[in-house]
From TrEMBL:
This is C4-dicarboxylate-binding protein DctP. It comes from Anoxybacillus tengchongensis. InterPro entries: DctP_fam (IPR018389), TRAP_DctP (IPR004682), TRAP_DctP_sf (IPR038404). Gene3D superfamilies: Bacterial extracellular solute-binding protein, family 7. Keywords: Signal, Transport.
Length: 347
């Protein structure tokens, strides 16, 4: 009997001690989780924003304004790191990295999204869009919606369309006034079959290449020319290595501001709301900068010593005729519906 009660006491004692130490360790781990939660909440959310143009380009200035406004308005909850001039990634790499969340914001030229869907080459259809307003109307409306949906399955969300404007030709060999003048020349292109065909239709060839490599390729004569906006031609210093500028406005170079959908969806509600408000504000300013800075850059290029030729109405008609094969080959893969929406936006 005595033996039994001794054993019982022993069991109760050991059990009590175990329960005590167990509850202690549970409360310690609860404290740790709480601490961790606090730590996470007090750590800023970091947004890496990678782009390829100069800080004083319309895109570069907009990225910096976005950083400034977001950091001011979230009281340190969000930190934006802007990497201009391909410092972090070139466009192709950035487009691959975004769905992996190694970068949270990018603003590539819409052409570069051809790796996701050929319809993004609509901007390269020769002489399709006739004004900045038409471009804004297209992207802010049904055209933009149709194209944005094409990125959803890749975990990419379109936040806004930013502008840079019309493309023009430069080259180092001769003035380009008529389609025949392009024969045998090599042009750097961003990417895509539409641009390959555009130059093939002119008897020239296309050499796709990352933006950061273009200056050296022009300087070393790897290519004879390229096509870009006044502001990119100016801020990249192409006037130093290209003698001739043809003002053609034959295609567009605009951007989509993109984020990683999963990253975006788990942001705290108030933060996401602030970011959306800032994006709306910056987008308005970005488009104004695009118009203003391109006008200023054109004046600078004229003063730089480049020989400038502005295509006349008749010249443009000759180019439209020469470039018709681009429509014959690609209108279907880009989508007649999108081409019609672009034409409607011109009205
Ligand atoms: C280019 O590669 O020429 C452009 O996409 C660069 C840019 O972002 O304006």
């Amino acid at each position: 009997m005595r033996k039994m009660s001794f054993l019982l006491m022993l069991v109760l004692l050991v059990g009590g001690l175990f329960a005590c130490s167990n509850s202690q360790s549970t409360s310690t781990s609860t404290n740790k989780t709480e601490e961790k939660k606090e730590e996470v909440a007090s750590e800023p959310i970091v947004i890496k924003f990678s782009h390829v143009t100069a800080p004083d380009s319309p895109k570069g200035k907009a990225a910096d304004l976005f950083k400034q406004l977001v950091e001011e308005r979230t009281n340190g909850k969000v930190k934006v790191e802007v990497y201009p001039s391909s410092q972090l990634f070139d466009d192709d790499k950035a487009i691959q990295e975004l769905p992996r969340n190694t970068v949270q914001l990018i603003a590539p030229s819409t052409t570069k999204l051809v790796s996701y869907d050929p319809a993004f080459q609509i901007v390269d259809m020769p002489f399709l869009f006739t004004s900045d307003e038409a471009v804004y109307k297209f992207w802010d409306g049904e055209g933009g919606q149709i194209l944005s949906q094409k990125l959803e399955k890749y975990n990419i969300k379109v936040l806004a369309m930013w502008a840079n404007g019309e493309k023009h030709f430069t080259n180092s060999k001769r003035p380009l006034k008529k389609p025949e003048d392009f024969k045998g020349l090599k042009f750097r292109t961003q990417t895509g079959k539409v641009l390959d065909e555009q130059f093939a239709a002119l008897g020239a060839s296309a050499v796709p290449m990352g933006f950061s490599e273009v200056y050296v390729a022009l300087q070393q004569g790897t290519v004879d020319g390229q096509e870009n906006t006044f502001n990119n031609i100016d801020t990249q210093g192409y006037a130093e290595v290209q003698k001739y500028l043809t003002v053609s406005g034959h295609g567009r170079l605009d951007y989509l501001l993109l984020t990683n959908t999963k990253f975006w969806d788990i942001l705290p509600e108030d933060v996401r709301k602030t970011l959306e408000e800032v994006i709306a504000e910056v987008t308005e300013q970005q488009r104004k900068w695009s118009e203003e800075l391109n006008r200023e850059s054109y004046e600078k290029l004229k003063a730089s010593g480049m020989e400038v030729y502005e295509l006349t109405k008749e010249d443009i008609e000759a180019f439209q005729k020469a470039m018709q094969p681009v429509y014959d080959k690609f209108a279907d893969s880009i989508g007649q519906d999108l081409i019609e929406l672009a034409k409607k936006a011109n009205e």
